[in-house]
């Protein structure tokens, strides 16, 4: 089963945007992410609808963060992406007629729900600011400086 990497990708884009002084174009962000600018525009449009980013039109325009990094959590971004499922595991059959499979689904469903609730609670605690601080600490260790490459 293919993993959904949109949250990871969006976090990457947002942290790059935080490092840029001024608006970032879809083209420059797409280059950083090795994807098509249309993909970036589609993703950022969803984040704009949630008030996380804003776009500026015209020459010198592009995308900017609309909120302070400390006020945006992974949970906020997860919601802006449409609350995709966070687990790749699932039931073999959603509505089984077999009583054994019903028992299996019940036990697995309870475990899935508990795991998802725990993960989403953790997402509420992690801010973009904490990720940015981690990045800057890593940069200092690697290069002795505090700048992106």
From TrEMBL:
Annotated protein name in UniProt: Rrf2 family transcriptional regulator
Organism: Microbulbifer harenosus
